[in-house]
Amino acid sequence: VLKILLLQDADGNVSRVIRVGTRKSQLARIQTDSVVEKLKELHPDVHFEIVAMSTTGDKILDTALSKIGEKIHPSLLLDIIYVYFAQIYLPTVLPVGFTIGSVLKRENPHDAVVLHPKHKGKRLDSLANKSVVGTSSLRRAAQLKKRFPHLEFKDIRGNLNTRLKKLDEKDDFSAIILAAAGLRRMGWENRISQILGPEDCMYAVGQGALAVEVRARDQDILEMVSVLNDSDTVLRCISERAFLKHLEGGCSVPVAVYTEIKNSQLYLTGAVYSLDGSDSLKETMQTSISSDNQVEEQEKVDEKVQRVGITALKVSEAAQDAAVKLGVDLGNLLLSKGAKEILTVARQLNDAR
Fold first, then answer.
1. 51 - beta bridge partners?
2. Transmembrane segments in this chain: where (predicted)?
3. Distance of CA 47 to the CA centre of its chain
4. Largest distance between two CA atoms of the chain
5. pLDDT, tens digit, for every residue of 40-73?
6. Nearest 5°: phi and psi at 265?
């Protein structure tokens, strides 16, 4: 979220100051710095000030993230730009007055297996019976329990550094599951023992994509950050968020997605799971996003152009509408087959834990 100030130097020159909010973790800073560097290249006369903030999820470390729910949105009273790692931290309905102004090119969205050093060279299927795997994600646990029934899964909280320390310095976990994107951005690719493909574990909505949140009515700021948009990533994330929103899902229920764009077709696979993975529904649908895929000029910036919280200037409106419809249609298909019942039970069991 972005606050505009004016800064005067010793020579009396006045420059614009834009405050950029981020979480306090090392990974969050690395990601925010990468966004700011891109903006600095485009706007060398602007001074960008980074402001670190704590979210509810950062402060409550003794509770599974799924039980905190969608309450980790930072205070928006600071009136600044906010950079998010993936959109799993962003509810599909944002607070009034705010919007996602840009979605950058997606890093690898898949999950990665990080092994305890003593298990180096192994994979999940070769770990011993009843080996404990750490993850704070209901989505990961539900899919992997079904795929690897010989393993046990337990919650593990903390930032990336903290989780790796818990893995390496104790014998509580044989492995942990983390987002590949975060490990790569931290420069820790060498810790990745296995990338989990969609046949093993589909990813979370928006995983791997950096999102920049701004005030919805700041047209100049929207224009500024819109150049960072990656059209394919925007369309994939819009379809994923529309799917999640239609299911009324979130991090408190196991919902997973997989998207790809081929030959001007957007493919969306979505799934819902019971907590133990024994009950699930999974379907795939596709839509055309060609519609010339051209840059469209918008005469007026208004909150009404938001699509599931995203205001993507310079991305085809027709393609965005098609992506929204795809997510809604897939959500309806799963709901018609009993998704609501599966998710209701999963939510109740999670709340009771």
1. 21
2. none
3. 27
4. 70
5. 999 998 989 898 876 554 444 455 555 544 444 4
6. -115, 130
